[in-house]
Structure formats: structure tokens, C-alpha cells
Amino acid sequence: MQNQMTNLSLSDFAYHLPITTRWMDNDMYGHVNNVNYYSYFDTVINQFLIEKANFDPVTSEQIGFIVKSNCEYLRPVSYPEKLTGGFKVERIGNSSVDYIVGIFNNEERLSAIGQLRHVFVDRQSQKPMPIRGELLAALKSAM
Amino acid sequence: MQNQMTNLSLSDFAYHLPITTRWMDNDMYGHVNNVNYYSYFDTVINQFLIEKANFDPVTSEQIGFIVKSNCEYLRPVSYPEKLTGGFKVERIGNSSVDYIVGIFNNEERLSAIGQLRHVFVDRQSQKPMPIRGELLAALKSAM
Amino acid sequence: MQNQMTNLSLSDFAYHLPITTRWMDNDMYGHVNNVNYYSYFDTVINQFLIEKANFDPVTSEQIGFIVKSNCEYLRPVSYPEKLTGGFKVERIGNSSVDYIVGIFNNEERLSAIGQLRHVFVDRQSQKPMPIRGELLAALKSAM
Amino acid sequence: MQNQMTNLSLSDFAYHLPITTRWMDNDMYGHVNNVNYYSYFDTVINQFLIEKANFDPVTSEQIGFIVKSNCEYLRPVSYPEKLTGGFKVERIGNSSVDYIVGIFNNEERLSAIGQLRHVFVDRQSQKPMPIRGELLAALKSAM
Fold this sequence. Notes:
4 copies of one chain form a homotetramer. By secondary structure, chain A is α+β, with helices and mostly antiparallel strands. Chain A has 2 helices and 5 strands, in the order E-H-E-E-E-E-H. Chain A has a 5-stranded antiparallel sheet. The first copy, chain A, has one domain: Roll (Thiol Ester Dehydrase, Chain A), CATH 3.10.129.10. Chains in contact: A-B, A-C, A-D, B-C, B-D, C-D. At the A-C interface, loops of A face loops of C.
């Protein structure tokens, strides 16, 4: 991960989503457990696709599988803090796309920053297929 | 559970909380899994206590343990639907309290209704202790 | 819930399943959170159906939806404790079935006891359909 | 991540832990959701520390915070598949340590491979402190 990623602010992201934490998100040490950030990432990404790319998890011909992910943790947060997810597209390949998702605390300071790669496959054959149409346009708009 | 509980509307509840669903909340059948409703219940209850009863999960002398819970599932919901939790107090005992929590879908129809019992204990001794002061006042206000 | 349920021992259950706890199962108070027990229940029930009733979550014609559930919490447990789930069938109706699931700690003492109702529906129409064949035989064998 | 990591076999890992999947681990696409692998990683790492380094999550003076993590997903798995976690230590610094965790399917083929960094801090001050004593010895034994 490039160092400058940890300096991103919410205004660097094309799409924002409020995230409500849950009691269970906190672990024994009283902070949101490292695992749950990936659940936030997943939710922000899919929400963008649903809202902006007309994606339907149940019926769309193309679905995205996560093939790699990483996260750097900068500042702990705890339930009941209200968070904001920032989303942008880093790279669009033929059938894969790289996302950057930042999780910001209630003072808009970066709590964690993640990168994730989706490979889009045909729902039936589960073979990779080229990103195109509405999906491609939406992803481009978020770079 | 009394039958009339399944007829409750959002206006029957003393406290409301928006709940954002997560991608992972859906199970293989494409609906929010039955387990996750209890996570919503937990979150609504604690949020009420934090906002209205000055409860602090890290420092408050009294903490609440769930000793029983139940849920009736009426209408499936799915991520990315936005939900609302309705909360009210059903009964206040010496050290225990019964809550009713309704989970409403984005058309304000009841998706599931739960009952949960908290026993309040001293954080150090973990022995039950009487509900009093701000906590008692807040619980009474939500009956 | 009948009082005598809280006296059940592992030998009262027709089917047993080891359950490994996870770090994240513990909440801020250092115990397995009340919500996670329902995830154990879900897993024990489906495991029974898969092993004993030839159920396949992806292809079986009939799938089970949970329509109600409850739990009584008796003794807290904490990760990394190893648990055992006990499963039995309490009642078989036309298209619904009631289960009892006990969660036992590593000394075989009951930590929590739950009751859950499955309604079996046709996967396509999602309408209730009678329990029959292998499924009925397996459920009967676990009463 | 180095390419050769995706070629690791279970015998390359110093410590093994069986992992039982849960019904809820599967997402709408019928596979264990990408997020849950991080919960497996967390569990394998803490289990090693508890068993081999005499770590106690409730009382130990030093506790480990995850500061970065990544995962590469190679082969989907689904509940109710039984998995095995493989754990090894990649690098020991002054107060931080890098782990490699592999998740193997029921044919001992690698499903996903992760790297995580723990920084050990003093439980009270939450300041980094040098890794030493039993903890250091256990980590060294798993390189």
C-alpha cells in the first residue's frame, strides 16, 4: 500500500456511505474488531454498485468476487460511534477492478484504509467476463 | 409471545433507531439471516441505554446481561434494505427489565419482533443490583 | 420454555456437534455474545439436516426457514472454550418442525438452551410443503 | 505478497488448527464470505498465542493489536466444509510480529492465504512494548 493512502480525506472519495456500528462489532478490547472493517468495505462496495451501477445481487448477469483485500488500521473506533465509508475506484482492468475504501470516524479522521479487488464473473458459468455497459460507466465515474 | 405483538406499528415504540444492513447479513437464501436480528436487537437496546440513560459500556458501574431472548419472524428483508428498530420497555423488575424490540422494513411494516431480558449487575462483582437513578428513570420513560 | 429444559444433559440429545468458538464471538464483557448462540443453533440444525436427512442447502427441493426462536442463557462461556451442541426434535407438524438445541461448555454443563421452529418450503415457490421422505424419517429418528 | 505463498502446503506451517464453518459464513453466492476468512485468521493467531505462549486475553500484561492485514483468495469453500488453519511466524520485530495464516479446504488445498501484523502493547498504557520471555520464545519456535 502506498504511504500517501493513509493521508486521504473524505473529500478524496467519489462516494460516501454512513455506517452504523453494532454492539457486537466491539471485541474484548472494547474496539471494533479488525475483521469487521472488511464487512464495512464489502457493504460500501456493494452499495455503490447497487446505487450507481444498477447492480442487483439476486438477478444481475455479472457478479463480483473478491480475490484479494488488504487493510491498514490507523485509529481504533468503538460502537456506538457513527462512521462514514469513502469509496473510489483505483484501477479498471478487463474483468477486474481495484477499489480503495476509507473508513472515517465521527470526526472525519481516517480509522482504516483498505484495497480490494473484484473479478466480475458470469453468474451462471462463474467465468470472468469483461466489464462493460452501465457497470463500466459507473466505475469510471468513481475514479 | 402475545399475538397482538405482531400487530405493533412503529408509533407504538418509545424510541426509534435506523439500522443499516450489511452485505454479510444476507444468507444463502438471499435474506437477512435469522441470527442477525438479535444483533439488531442488541444494538437498539444498548443505543437506547447510551443515549437516554447515560450508559457507558466501558465505565458504567452497572452493566446489563441478556438472560433470555426470543424472536418471531414475520417478513423477510434483504440487504441493502434500510430498517428501523423500535424499542420499548415492557416490564421493570428489581434488577431485571424486559424489552420489546420491533424491526421494521423500509415500508414501516414489521419484519420481526423480539423480547429480551436484561439483568443489571455490578461490573466488578457481577452480582445483580437494583435498577435505580438515571437508568430507572430512562427505562420508565420508555414504557 | 418449560423449566425442566434447563436441566437437560448432553445425553438427552439425539445428535451432538462440536463447536469451535472464535475470537470475535466474545464481546466487550469478555463472554460469547448472546447473539452468537443463535449462530451455533443454526449451524447445529443445518448440520443435522445435511448429515442425517441428505439435505443440500444449494439443491434440495425443500428448504427450512426459521419462523421463531428463543434462548435462555444459563452460564457464560468465552473463546477459546470448546463447546458441544446437542440437538433434538421436539415436535413435527405438517410442514413445520420444532427443535431443541443445547449448548454445553467444556465440562458438559449447559450454557444455553434454545428452541427454534423451521417451516419447510418449496425452494422455488417459497410456499410451505409437507415434510416427507428422508427428511421426515431423519426428524423422527431425532425425537 | 510473494507469489510463492500461494504454493504453501499445510506441512509448511508450524501450527495447525481445525476450523468449523457456520451456516452464516456463507453469503448470497453460497460461499464463505471473504470477510469471514479474517475471523478465521484472528482465531488461529490467538489460539496459537493461548496454547503456546501462555497468553490470556483477559489478564496478560501484553496484548496484540492488528495493525495491517491482507488476504489472497484462491479457492472458494462453503459451509459445512471442515477447514484447517496453518500458522507460522514470518518476522519478529521489537514489538511487532508478522504472521502468515493459510486456510486449507477439506482436501488440504489452500483456499486463502493471509498476512497479519500484530503490535504488542501494554494492556494499561496501550503503548508498544518489546516482545520477550515466553511470548518471544513461542513466536521464535513457529518461524
